[in-house]
Specification:
The chain is mainly beta. It has no helices and eleven strands.
Length: about 130
């Protein structure tokens, strides 16, 4: 059974930083890319950032550009999200996800592109 496990969430003051990690466990599998989504209280889950292993292309939501950085390791099916200059609006449960098939970059913004999901890790930013 394939599982994605997130870690690194927590409580931080506005302006602070957190680094989220996500790693695959269970049987090995290959991916074309991975991403992060988040769900804030009372809101739909939304795209945050993604990375395609081929070429190392990265994609970001406008709300996090310049503050968040995604990176990862294809061989280890691991992805990280470095979050700087955090704002109270970044408070959410953050989910990592993995892509098992080839898609062009524009599809990485869309939830249905992703085949596997983690359970989420809570990030709370206090003002």
């Amino acid at each position: 059974q394939i599982q994605l496990v997130e870690s690194g969430g927590g409580l931080v003051q506005a302006g602070g930083s957190l680094r989220l990690s996500c790693a695959a466990s269970g049987r090995t599998f290959s991916t074309y890319g991975m991403g992060w989504f988040r769900r804030a209280p009372g809101r739909e889950r939304e795209f945050v950032a993604a990375i395609r292993w081929s070429g190392g292309d990265t994609y970001y939501a406008d709300s996090v550009k310049g503050r968040f950085t995604i990176s990862g390791d294809n061989a280890k099916v691991t992805v990280f999200l470095q979050m700087n200059s955090l704002e109270p609006e970044d408070t959410a449960v953050y989910f990592c996800a993995a892509v098992r098939r080839y898609y062009s970059g524009r599809y990485y913004y869309v939830e249905r592109t992703y085949d596997y999901w983690g359970q989420g890790t809570q990030v709370t930013v206090s003002s």
